[in-house]
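Fold Annotation — chain and its backbone
Next Lines — sequence and tokenised fold

***
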Amino acid sequence: METKLNLDVHAILDKEFHVDFKGYSASEVDALLDLVIEDYQIYDQMIAEMSETALLQERTIASLKAKILELEGKQKMMSESENLNVSQMDILKRLSRLEQIVYQEKK
């Protein structure tokens, strides 16, 4: 997106016009103003492109944030499920031990 601009701050400030009978040369002033207009058109185009890019990036960010929330929710559910499975496993192990103790006492 590297675009060569016709003018910069120093070129505008340092520009000297030749003085004619009625003042500055109208053709030189017009030529400079034509360059300024071209630069402003380029600036407008660059701003429009950057605005479009920024909007696209904002949409991408919103989409990624939604995806993060979804994945965090899934992770939390999986974590809770694992904790539940561990708790159920502990209960089954305890029951198994109690059954072994009860059956051994009956023998």
Remarks:
- The chain has one domain: 9-106.
- The chain has a mean pLDDT of 82.
- Helices lie at 9-14, 26-106.
